[in-house]
Amino acid sequence: MSAATVAILQKFWGYPSFRPLQEDIVDSVMAGKDTLALLPTGGGKSICFQVPAMAMEGLCLVVTPLIALMKDQVAHLVERGIPAAAIYSGMHPDQLELTYNQAVFGRLKFLYVSPERLQTDVFVEAVKRMKVCLLAVDESHCISQWGYDFRPPYLKIADIRPYMPKTPVLALTATATAKVVDDIQLRLGFKHKNVFQSSFERKNVTYNVLHEADKYGVLRRKLDAMTDGSAIVYVRNRKRTQVIADWLNSVGISATFYHAGLDAKVRDERQDLWMMGKVRIMVATNAFGMGIDKPDVRLVIHMDLPDSLEAYFQEAGRAGRDLKPSEASLLISPADVKKLLEDLSHSFPELERIKLIYNALGNYFNIPVGAGKDTSYPLVISEFANRYGFSVVEVFHTLKILEKEGFLVLSDSFDEPSKVMIKASRDDIYGFQVNNPQYGDLIMCMLRNLPGVMTEFVRVNEEVLAKKAGLTAEKTLEQLKTLDAYNLLSYAPRNDKPHVLFLTEFVDTKYFNLSRENYHDRKRNAEERVRAVVGFVNNDEECRSVQLLRYFNEKANETCGRCDVCRRKSSGLVDYQSIENRLVSMVSESSKPIGEVVAQCRDYDEGMVLDSIRFLIDNGVLQLGKDGRLDSSKNKKSRQG
Questions:
Q1: S-S: 385 plus which of 156, 206, 390, 608, CB 3.0-4.6 Å?
Q2: What are the start-end ranges of the H helices in 176-252?
Q3: How many angstroms separate the CA atoms of 168 and 336, rounded?
């Protein structure tokens, strides 16, 4: 272990030492070796490239597909006094040029790049002139066609390695099967195989699969029994996030909801409320959680079946990062498997339907055949679908297929605030003001109130700027656009919509080459992943942790002893009478919330406890009030008497 890297870790991140596997990964990178690091969600992947890069001379190039995450990491690095920037779809051309120049002339230590930028001529020319000390590839499973989230632009990473022949690559991911591990190293051009993998086993997390028709009842009991910390409830439908959150609030459980269709500002606000503990429960689609490092998540509940065990493991892995006992519960009803298979069929629209939607995109954005490469457009899927009479679902899945074929890239919406940079010199500005005095108040206001505006893009709030300049908001917006047209400044208005970036020239659908082989291969791979999910939830004979570890090619030394399977087996000798006696005794003096009752019976199988409660209610021994409290019928009668 290098003393220099430990000193950097302490100085910039405040940690006294590395975690065990982090240390090995950092040493491997410092030795100039191509390295693949498999670390679970919350395992501290960013430290593995940020610390060694700080100890090297030159710039660290980071490839990641998650725009919100790259912006967050750039912000954290800048807060620590480390120069960093990001390049992604939807940026103003002048902003791109400025960022590339900063990287080329050594003014940045970290440059984050979304993968689709790698194949642009501008990037290639810039990277040839950069001094890159480390190439970090986050979410590296995206490079493998066998992975659950394949992204063709990742295949271009190997193309830029010849421009930095002595630069090591560090590939990072949280989940990968053995096939994907080999494929990552092959696709990235590893000189020698070199993998560091932490165990996928999470000893503090209990995985449960609960076959239960009354999911809302189980959800409420689970959350009522949660005495501390926070929870995430995952669903696969955007509308249901709000329905469930509203219901939880109506029964006195603090909750909010999150999905990619919400305004970026709203998403950020809700995430902050949950992170700060002002709201305990987040009901969300899989759009929530990436890059979130909240240590006290006690419970992750899936109300719907995920479409892969990789996705489930990553989402469930957000529980218990503080290493305290936590739970991941997957609730399944009889109709869920059928619904999952229907969703799978919808994920692969017919090829002719895909061509029709692709052609409609060209009309929607007015892109002529042979044009459109490297151009980016804001896209609200629902608006596009309504205009052409498509369903939102088929448009979304068509875009995903076109993305995997390398035609385009679809980004989730993210909040990009308005930015401005004055390009003209002070002499030119003065001359312009003399001839155009009506712009003087706005120009002087920007120079006085926006530090750095002459050298870089800075955030601007148009309404605040208008008040300080003594103008209306409309007049300020009009003048900013005019000054941009005069080339005195570059103005990038706020962007809060998802974008679609075309990676190739638009083609006539008569010559539209969508690979049938790729289409059918991906469909078959998706079917295999769905079968693995169905096999997992239906296997009630093997420990849940053992099943998950085997899927990721890891052998478990022992069963967990806590999941629904293990508890059912260990409680096989316990008769129902002892559970019923316990339940009656617990409420003999006073009523108790049903969640609290179930929680206090954790030494029994939860299914058996719930069966016993139903039996005692059906036979008049116990009563369940509308307030969710369980009471003894004898107590209730004596109070009424």
A1: 390
A2: 178-187, 215-224, 238-250
A3: 45
Per CATH, domain 419-492 is 1.10.10: yes
Amino acid letter at 367? Answer: I
pLDDT mean across residues, the chain: 88
Residue 558 CB contacts under 8 Å (≥ 6 apart), including other chains: none
For domain 3-197, give the fold: Rossmann fold (3.40.50)
pLDDT at 582: 86
Element (H, E) at 249: helix 238-250
Contact partners, residue 528, CB within 8 Å, separation at least 6: none
Is the distance from CB of 240 to CB of 257 less than 8 angstroms?
no
Q: Work out the number of other CB atoms within 10 angstroms of the CB of residue 556.
A: 17
Q: What was the pLDDT predicted at 618?
A: 65
Q: How far apart are the first and last CA of the chain?
A: 76
- pLDDT value at 636 more than 60: no
For residue 380, what is the DSSP state? Answer: -
CATH of 342-415+497-526, one of 1.10.10.10, 3.30.540.10, 1.20.1050.10, 1.40.20.10: 1.10.10.10
Beta bridge partners of 232: 282, 300
Q: Report the candidate in 369, 120, 412 with the shortest Cα–Cα distance to residue 263.
A: 412
Q: Which helix (H) or strand (E) holds 169?
A: strand 169-173
3-state secondary structure of 221: helix
What pLDDT, in 10s, does the model give residues 348-366?
Answer: 998 889 999 999 999 999 9
* 3 state SS of 196: strand
Q: Return the amino acid letter for 409.
A: V
Q: What is the pLDDT of residues 54-85, one digit of tens each?
A: 999 999 999 998 777 888 889 889 999 999 99
Q: pLDDT tens digits for 477-492? A: 999 999 999 899 899 8
HSE at residue 620, side-chain half, CA atoms within 13 A, is 2
Residue 560 vs residues 184, 547, 554, 570: alpha-carbon distances, Å: 31, 11, 14, 12
* 337 SS3 class: helix
The residue behind tokens 């539209």 is 512
Average pLDDT over residues 446-465: 89
Q: Please, which residues bridge with residue 217 across strands? A: none
**Segments in 283-379 forming alpha helices (H):** 309-316, 336-346, 351-365
Q: Does position 513 have pLDDT exceeding 90, yes or no?
A: no
pLDDT classification of 543: cutoffs 50, 70, 90: very high
Q: In CATH, what number does 205-334 get?
A: 3.40.50.300
User: Rounded to an integer, what distance in angstroms lies between the CA atom of residue 487 and that of residue 423?
Assistant: 7
Count of beta carbons in the 10 Å neighbourhood of residue 295: 12
